[in-house]
């Protein structure tokens, strides 16, 4: 009678690690790009950018009412959209608030600044997915991705054998990788 063959667990481990890695590659790029952007929110807004455009419409008479000035400004700009509101902070300035932005005009010179906030095309979408803004089905996909990363981490420990594997150099690197968040947690919880 032939003895039972050994289960080729290392081969299965490598295959599992490889295939989950391929599946997770796209989401890993999405989360990495978004994570870098979100980490630096103090330096810039990763979701929106402010667009500023200068135009010249010629001087506007300051003696007109706010409503008349608003109408005249929008006619000269060839804007057909109705404003939300307007405001005249002083005799020489008119601010007209639109759905997507704001016109600020210097009445004596006719210089107009249009300012609008626009979502950053790719980063806005990535960041919304990163923080799970859509909820619903994305929650389950994000959970599967997290489980995939967990599996990648565990199977990756057993890819190599010998001095470069988990019983050699890999043990030191794994210990360092675990120690960094623990040290930070200890500092944050007790020393700051």
Which descriptors apply to this entry?
192 residues; 5 helices
Instruction: Tell me about the largest β-sheet.
Output: 5 strands, antiparallel
Range of helix content: 40-55%
Content-based structural category: alpha+beta
Distance between the termini: 67 Å
The neighbouring-strand order within the major sheet is: 1-5-4-3-2
**H/E element sequence:** HEHEEEEHHH
Give the DSSP E fraction (strand runs of 2 or more residues): 15-25%
Give the averaged pLDDT, no decimals: 94
Query: What's the Cα radius of gyration?
Result: 29 Å
Total beta strand runs: 5
Number of helical segments with 4 or more residues? 5
Indicate the overall shape. Answer: elongated
Low-confidence stretches: none
Please give a structural write-up.
The protein has 192 residues and is an alpha+beta fold. The protein has 5 helices and 5 strands, in the order αβαββββααα. It is 50% helix and 18% strand. It has a 5-stranded antiparallel sheet with strand order 1-5-4-3-2. A hairpin with a 2-residue loop joins β2 and β3 (93-97). The model has no long low-confidence stretch (mean pLDDT 94).
Short description:
This protein is of the alpha+beta class and 192 residues long.
């Amino acid at each position: 009678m032939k003895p039972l063959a050994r289960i080729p667990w290392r081969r299965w481990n490598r295959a599992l690690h490889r295939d989950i890695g391929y599946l997770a590659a796209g989401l890993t790029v999405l989360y990495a790009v978004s994570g870098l952007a979100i980490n630096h929110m103090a330096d810039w807004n990763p979701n929106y950018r402010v667009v500023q455009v200068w135009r010249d419409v010629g001087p506007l008479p300051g003696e007109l009412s706010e409503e008349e000035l608003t109408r005249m400004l929008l006619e000269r700009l060839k804007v057909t959209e109705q404003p939300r509101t307007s405001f005249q902070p002083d005799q020489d300035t008119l601010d007209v608030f639109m759905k997507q932005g704001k016109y600020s005009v210097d009445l004596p010179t006719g210089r107009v600044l249009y300012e609008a906030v626009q979502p950053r095309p790719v980063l806005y979408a990535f960041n919304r997915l990163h923080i799970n803004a859509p909820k619903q089905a994305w929650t389950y996909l994000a959970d599967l991705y997290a489980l995939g990363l967990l599996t990648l981490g565990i199977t990756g420990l057993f890819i190599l054998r010998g001095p470069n594997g988990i019983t050699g150099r890999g043990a030191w690197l794994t210990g360092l990788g675990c120690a960094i968040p623990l040290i930070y947690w200890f500092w944050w919880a007790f020393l700051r």
